[in-house]
Amino acid sequence: MQISTNIWQWISVICIFGMWSLPLYKDNPFYRVCQNVFVGSCAGHAIGIAIGNIVNYGFEPLFTQSKIDLLIPVILGLMLYTRFFPGVAWLSRWPVAFLVGVGVGQTIYASLRSQVINQSIAAMTKFPQPTVGATINGLVSLIGLLSILTYFLFTVPQSGVVRGMSELGRWMMMVTFGVGFGNVVSGRLSVLLGELLKIFGDWLGMI
Amino acid sequence: MRKEVPLLITFVVALIVMLSQVTTGNIPGLGVAMPDLFERYISPWMTVVSAFSLCLASVNLIVVHSRNISRKQSEWIYSLILLGTLVIYGAWCTYIQINPDNTAAASNYSLIYNYILSPLMTGQWACLAFYVASASYRAFRARNLEATVLLASAILVMLGATPVGGVIWSKFPVIQRWLIDIPNMTGQRALLIGAAVGSFVACLRTMLGIERGHLGIGGS
User: Fold this and answer.
1) A156: helix, coil or strand?
2) Is the CB of B141 inside 8 Å of chain A's CB atoms?
3) Contacts 24+ apart (CB under 8 A), A73-78
4) DSSP sequence for A140-172
5) What is this structure's pTM?
6) pLDDT digits over B161-178, tens only?
7) ipTM
8) Core-most of A38, A109, B5, B188, by most CB within 10 Å?
């Protein structure tokens, strides 16, 4: 065992223990300090990137390349802050409207193209497949998809065949949620193992 | 003016962005194509306005915590720590963003990023592993057949993902792969299609001004 003499390794491990002190012990001042340092550093980093973007993509081309059109987003951006002045707070709706407009325009196309159309195309399977296994997989995919979509069909009374399909859809969703949960647990544990590796390897030199 | 202009901005911008993805020809009378309009104007404008909006969120954070400190409210010391860290990281990151040629400042910043911010972030994520363990206990109490299906598929996936699963039975990784590729993919696909239809409708309502909650004007 050879403990690291690198000050940064020590700081790093202190930060990790600070965060872990909440689940391993209880809410305590050490955790609260780490938590606030975490929030402050994340926010500070985000501010830095944002100001960098404003300067590099806003002010610099505006003043050095005389791109006058960039005055519009700068003014719109400044209008966001009018919400701190009640008399003119309504002006902050304009930049919000712009941001929402861009998001809406992108989502309308993307949701139809990449999700509804592309996913529907991917769900279409040719029968029979070359092997029995592949045919069964194709059937599971097709029937599973239709049954889950039937579960979300609220315009048709849930009785008879529709009810049966809907129940099957619920079962399929349970499998999906189970797989999702299993993946989340595995993912979190692998992050935890990475941290343990850092503690026992980089810091304590035991691995 | 107060209501109509924002609605008009949303409609026009959304229309330009939407059409820029499906049209290629020039707009009659303007001599410019929609994709060019998006590339040249909307996209860079979006970068700048969204950067301003991010700063607005930070201004709110600063206002709230400054108030805590000035009024010496309980636990104001934590607000002081938060603001201090925010100022250090904010100033340093801004400096290296504006002066990309200063490599010494950038490499020093990467130290406080890699050895303070990054461990805090991964430490927080790893914390969730502890909570997931207790959540698993509650979720995995198989109270009915559907919960049992959820439990079984989660256990099979976890066993397949870990080396010990393969040692116990060599088929666990195969079952895990099948569960992920076939039933899980099918479920994800169906949920994606359902969510996409919902988001399409919500976006259309917003674009047409039926949904106005984002502007604080209220519903239709």
Assistant:
1) coil
2) no
3) A73/B44, A73/B45, A73/B46, A73/B47, A73/B48, A73/B49, A73/B52, A74/B48, A76/B45, A76/B49, A76/B52, A77/B48, A77/B49, A77/B51, A77/B52, A77/B53, A78/B52
4) HHHHHHHHHHHHT--SS-S-THHHHHHHHHHHH
5) 0.85
6) 888 999 999 999 999 999
7) 0.86
8) A38
Q: How far apart are the C-alpha atoms of B153 and A178, rounded to whole Å?
A: 5
| The two three-digit tokens of residue A117, written as one number | 């159309």
- In this structure, are residues B179 and A179 in contact, taking their beta carbons and an 8 Å threshold? yes
A106: chain B residues, CB-CB within 8 Å: 17-18, 21
CA gap B23, B26 in Å, rounded: 9
Please tell me the distance from the alpha carbon of residue B169 to that of residue B181, in angstroms, as a whole number: 20
Q: Where are the domains of chain A?
A: 125-207
Q: Provide the pLDDT for residue A124.
A: 87
Residue A141: is it exposed, middle or buried by C-beta count within 10 angstroms (0-12/13-18/19+)?
A: buried
Q: Which pLDDT value is given to residue B219?
A: 53
CB contact under 8 A, A93 and B6: yes
Of A49, A108, A179, the CB nearest to B93: A49
- How many angstroms separate the CA atoms of B159 and B162, rounded? 6
Tokens of B16: 């330009």
Per-residue pLDDT of chain B (220 residues; tens, 9 = 90+): 778 999 999 999 999 999 999 988 888 888 889 999 999 999 999 999 999 999 999 999 999 999 999 999 988 999 999 999 999 999 999 999 999 999 999 999 999 999 999 999 999 888 887 787 777 777 667 678 888 888 899 999 999 988 899 999 999 999 999 999 999 999 999 999 999 999 999 999 999 999 888 888 765 4
Residue type, A198: K
Residue count of chain B, please give it.
Answer: 220
* Calpha distance B1→B119 (Å, rounded): 49
pLDDT tens track for A121-133: 988 888 888 899 9
A206 touches chain B (CB under 8 A): no
Residue ranges per structural domain of chain B: 142-220
Please enumerate in sequence order all residues whose Cβ is within 8 A of that of B77, keeping only pairs 6 or more positions apart, or say none. Answer: none
The tens digit of pLDDT for each residue in B182-211 reads 999 999 999 999 999 999 999 999 999 998
